[in-house]
Write a structure and sequence with these properties.
Elements (H helix, E strand, L loop, with lengths): L2 H21 L10 H4 L2 E2 L1 H7 L5 H9 L5 E3 L8 E4 H12 L2
Antiparallel strand pairs: 1-3, 2-3
């Protein structure tokens, strides 16, 4: 999957989330849009953000469901995208031990 394809998939997901958000009851708040709230990273991007954490370790975190993620594409062939906030929260919780 190329970067442009990934970006199109993410844009579609964000568009759907925004549609879902619009159907909820009106609550006027100063919350940022879905595009600002959700940031998804590939396994390589996560490994680059966390020196000393290998791609293999990040895959293990996904399989153990210790971080939030989604899989694009069909079956096991799809690309794994990890929620950046969830990954950061996991790293912070491990650093506190």
């Amino acid at each position: 999957m190329t970067i442009s394809q990934r970006n199109r998939v993410l844009d579609k997901i964000i568009e759907l989330l925004e549609m879902l958000y619009e159907t909820e009851p009106d609550e006027q708040s100063a919350e940022p849009t879905a595009r600002q709230q959700i940031r998804m990273l590939t396994i390589k991007e996560c490994a680059a953000l966390a020196p000393g954490v290998s791609e293999h370790t990040i895959r293990k975190l996904v399989y153990q469901r210790k971080v939030k993620y989604m899989r694009t594409g069909e079956g096991n062939c799809g690309k794994i995208l990890i929620n950046a906030a969830s990954f950061q929260k996991y790293l912070e919780s491990q650093g506190a031990k």
